[in-house]
Structure prediction request, 463 residues.
Amino acid sequence: MISKITRGLRSALSSFFFCLLFVTLSFAGLADQVFEKTLDNGLKVLLLENHKAPVITFQVWYRVGSRNEQWGRTGLSHMLEHMMFKGSKKFSAQEFTKLIAENGGNDNAFTSEDFTAYFENISSDKAQVLIDLESDRMHNLVLRDEDFQTERMVVMEERRMRTEDDPQAYLMEQVQATAFQTSPYHWPTIGWKEDIERFTLADLKSYYSTYYNPVNAIVVVVGDFRKEDLLPRIEKGFGGIPKGVAPDQKKDLEQPQSGERRVFAKREAELPYVVMAYHVPNLRSPDSYVLEVLEALLSTGKSSRLYRSLVQEKQLALSVDADNSLTSRDPSLFTLSAQPLPDKDVAEIEKALDEEIERLRDKPVGLEELEKAKNQLEAAFVYSQASLFYQGMVLAQYEIALDWRSIDEYLPSIRKVTPEDIRRVVNLYLTADNRTVGRLIALPPKEGKPAPAEPSASGRMIR
Prediction:
């Protein structure tokens, strides 16, 4: 009976990895599948035909996020994202939403440190609707004071619910502000509360005119279309928009950290929490791919090192995680985080995390364990390409961070990682002097204070 199950499992795994190999080979060479053209006004267009279903994802990405803001004016990128849904010269806010819904589509937007993105998913024969809508609000957005005042209150409430009333999010915000002292990654994407309260409609108008122009934007379309048909329509819809001036994207980079930093946050919470954040490079460095494998070794699945050690064996943590910021525009952070069980101390969690880092320094990762981590990354990367939206998103993120063609380097770079690479990267980056440690000190709820309200379902993507 056991041998039968084993043979069946091996057969299933063989089929899985045969399919993985087939999809990997079909996905390899993305540079040969994507068509790129830069219009005369500087707008970059990336088109990827995929005829598996009669739908498209139409995405407009602007090279502007919180990293483009200034001290005292944080949160403008996110606020402008909200205002982009308030109507343009040709289409009111109601008409924008109605046209997409009537044509069976859906739309949304999100803001990060490095970009602001807008997208619609719709039947492929309705592409012209999206060209008309997106080209108009790129150039003809109407910014009214009454909308601004209302939407600012919405953003303030969003910040309250998603950061100030979320103890873990609040701690991460404090850790990032402590880890980054000169880089604009110092402030949160949503902005500081005081800055949101004081920036003006004039600030927003200036921000829009500076960053929302073709030379600072990317149009990405993935799905069931023919380039020969769609490209001329995109050129006609967007080509007449004035080029504008390309904003300066150079920002101050963080200087090497010379000693451990610590931050403590006291919030009403059921359990404490701990975060260790290490400065690391992004995909402009080959080490970023080693860090991807390290993330998988530490936290992908219940057989990962952190889960197996802290959750299963030592029974210290309720949850544990690792995260690598591969596609950040500037060097960012590699984080380890954990929430202790109710009867465990945060100091025990820190010690256990440090012990796992020391294990990586002292003993090379076994080849079988390393291969498993690589397979997990490859499978996740390849099968994510089943989503048209995700294909478009990855193209844009890589283009903003470096170049969309560098996507083709992901799988080969992951495959090349060796046990020696893991040890070298751990010794280089995961050191006490290079990290910021944040602890959440859980406070009991104040007597008589109601529990925080849950965010309402607004239909907007969580940013």
About this structure: The chain has two domains: 30-238, 261-443. DSSP finds 16 helices and eleven strands in the chain. The two ends are 50 Å apart (CA to CA). The CA atoms of residues 398 and 406 lie 7 Å apart.
